[in-house]
What we know:
single chain; alpha+beta; 3 strands
Amino acid sequence: MAFESDKVMFEIYRETEYTGQYKVVYFTELNDHNKEAEINRALAGEHFYDGFIREYRKDEAKRIIEQLVARLNSGENLSPEQVDEALKGHNA
Length: 92
């Protein structure tokens, strides 16, 4: 049985105010110093995908997410379903 603390909540969004680049924020890893600013940036952006990854092997999942964000920023047209498929086995 997985506990709430065994997963990391994240969102992929497109920044709409400055660069128009896709970014990822890991909400459950924010601290008091950056929490408000990061959440506000994500809320101001255009939502693309959100979910939870398992704490177990999260570094591997984060590498996959970073690769997906890089592909989006290079102009590749990915769907949320393709993100689901890429993260299969890492989703919590």
